[in-house]
């Protein structure tokens, strides 16, 4: 689960970018792996999601959001879970309370 305390408030201006996401016209199951998915099936699904992100007009906003809230699941801004984890580094205990 994302760090809820790091989510931006309810101001619609901060969330409007989501209305322009290319994934709104796609099957959401492409962006989040089903339980137990591994190997080639995982890679193929994730690559398909990333291709959609590649043409998305709000890719930068999406990735910035996912990194800022440390979104742990799914493809966001063209990056998969492992890629984002590599960029973000390990979560610090208590970080959500002090941020
Ligand atoms: S970058 Fe990808 S996940 Fe983010 S809004 Fe665009 S299509 Fe959706």
Automatic annotation (TrEMBL):
Pfam families: Whib
Locations listed in the record: Cytoplasm
Note accompanying the cofactor annotation: Binds 1 [4Fe-4S] cluster per subunit. Following nitrosylation of the [4Fe-4S] cluster binds 1 [4Fe-8(NO)] cluster per subunit.
InterPro entries referenced in this protein's UniProt entry, alphabetically: 4FE4S_WBL, Whib
PTM info: The Fe-S cluster can be nitrosylated by nitric oxide (NO).
Start and end residues of each 4Fe-4S Wbl-type domain: 22-86
Record-listed [4Fe-4S] cluster binding positions: 23, 53, 56, 62
Cofactor(s) recorded in Swiss-Prot or TrEMBL: [4Fe-4S] cluster
Alphabetical keyword list: 4Fe-4S, Cytoplasm, Disulfide bond, DNA-binding, Iron, Iron-sulfur, Metal-binding, Transcription, Transcription regulation
Domain of life, source organism: Bacteria
PANTHER family: TRANSCRIPTIONAL REGULATOR WHID, TRANSCRIPTIONAL REGULATOR WHID-RELATED
Role noted for this protein: Acts as a transcriptional regulator. Probably redox-responsive. The apo- but not holo-form probably binds DNA.
Family classification: Belongs to the WhiB family.
Stated name of the protein: Transcriptional regulator WhiB
């Amino acid at each position: 689960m994302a760090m809820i305390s790091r989510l931006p408030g309810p101001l619609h201006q901060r969330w409007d970018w989501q209305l322009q996401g290319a994934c709104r016209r796609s099957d959401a199951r492409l962006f989040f792996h089903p339980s137990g998915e591994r190997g080639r099936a995982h890679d193929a699904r994730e690559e398909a999601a990333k291709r959609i992100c590649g043409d998305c007009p709000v890719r930068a906003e999406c990735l910035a959001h996912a990194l800022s809230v440390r979104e742990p699941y799914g493809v966001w801004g063209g990056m998969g879970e492992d890629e984002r984890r590599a960029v973000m580094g390990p979560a610090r205990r208590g970080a959500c309370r002090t941020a």
